[in-house]
Design brief:
The protein is mainly α. It contains 5 helices and no strands. Helix 3 crosses helix 5 and helix 4 runs antiparallel to helix 5.
């Protein structure tokens, strides 16, 4: 074999190993050799967004004061706070908890309450 034929043969072998197709038959799709994933991005898929609940988070939380769990404790503390953001979203409540130096348990209760509120 001469040098040109050897190079073509090696290229064809390499292309067969990497892309799984012989040269010239189809355009190869670039992919990540470690994961095998194609490097061309698929078209974006629109994901439906769920609307926020109609009741403001602060108002919803205040109505949870009779519960016997962390969320109920958070609601009782919120009711006692004159500056509590009654019409606020979870971020406004999180900011207020930071301002008053609330303990970590209250932030965990807030996270749980936010999830319940979103499912409400």
């Amino acid at each position: 074999m001469n040098d040109m034929n050897a190079q073509t043969f090696k290229r064809d072998q390499l292309q067969m190993m990497v892309y799984g197709i012989p040269s010239g038959l189809a355009e190869p799709e670039p992919f990540d050799p470690e994961t095998g994933e194609l490097l061309t991005a698929p078209p974006p898929v629109a994901t439906p967004t769920r609307p926020l609940p109609s009741t403001p988070f602060g108002a919803w939380l205040l109505r949870q004061e009779k519960r016997h769990d962390w969320i109920g404790g958070l609601a009782k503390a919120a009711k006692a706070d004159r500056a509590f953001p009654k019409a606020g979203d979870p971020e406004a409540v999180r900011k207020r908890l930071s301002e008053v130096g609330a303990e970590a348990d209250m932030f965990e209760a807030l996270d749980a309450a936010e999830i319940e509120w979103l499912c409400y």
